[in-house]
Design goal:
The chain has two helices and 36 strands. The protein is mainly β. The N and C termini lie far apart (about 60 Å).
Length: about 425
Amino acid sequence: MKNVNVRDFGAIGDGATLDTAAIQNAINSCEKGDTLVFDGKGIFLTGTLRLKGDLRVYIEKGTELCGSRNLNHYYVNEFYHNEMEKTISMLYALDSDNIEMCGGGKIILSGDAWANFTCGSPDFMKDEHQCLKYEEQTVIGPDVKIERPTQPIFFNNCKNIHIHDLKIFNSPCWTFTFSNCENIVFERCYVDNHNRIANNDGVHFSASRNIIVRDSTFLCGDDCFAATCITNTEGVCENMEISNCLMSSRSAAIRFGHLYSKVRNAKIKNIEILPSNRAISIFTGDDGIVENIEIENVRAKTQIHAGWWWGKGEGFVICAKNTNGQIKNISIKNCDFTEENPSLIIGDGENLSGVTIENCNFKYEKGDTHPYYYGKIDIQPNVQTLEKAPFNTGDLIYVDGAKNVTLDEKSIVGSVK
């Protein structure tokens, strides 16, 4: 086992020279157990790099690995992504085990290079919500061009991945994606993405298992943590522990499930959520199932942010509406939610059951965008439009079409509809 310094292969690290070829040559030279080293407080500019198994990537504190702002410096790899179609990454690994990334340095993903921050950009999905008059609203968006690196740091069919002690900035799309992976530890990292860029999830686990995320910060335009099966609709995402994290999102801080996804066995503990469109999102679609989710000691504040974002200031949304998918065995206890719209528990009868809310405090607080969206149910993608609900001012939980819901109302400040 030895250190392989990218400078020894011709990488300059001056922030202007494209070092892709030199870095890839260094990676290719690595043998089992070697450490790929970025040092000297340089800025290493790169396009697509393919990692190999049994490799440690060490980015020294004060050093940056920076993604090029030119899409021509990236290539499409052979993984077909069900949602994004093309998989374009800065760092990726396929069918490779035992990968570690660490060192205290920074990874810059240059997401703003593919963003257009004018409301109503023709390059992004538009609907009736995006281009309302926002003069009195504090944040608009989202906005991004479709042509961009779609999976900036991507692992598929990999085992034993350890990501720790890194700072990651400005992702154009899902920051870290773990697809069909097993045994993943993500800890002591700081992820800071632009809050107007769509799809820039912090960590997204798809059809993966045995996952630990802890002691990290996620500031994202989209979901901070997501567990789905988008990349493999036949798979299962299971066995997750998320703890001791700080999160903020324009979508959901924590999300489980999406359309056909099968997600199960997760424990969430000791999470602080700064003002986000939604704190916790649990959804299912046709043939999907989300089950056995334990949430404890979450302190969250939600507010409505203007623009085409999912979520309208709910503390949590548990939704199995308009689907034959199922949600069951969800426990939320010892949590504090300050919310602008009521939390939602909405199903179609038997397909949503076994929800327990215990020893939780809910408080109602209006924000600047309150007049635009209060009282509207947002359960996209299950129902594509916002629906008016019979909320009363100050209602804090709205339950409809769910079975076996246990609410400890003694701990709720306000009312339950």
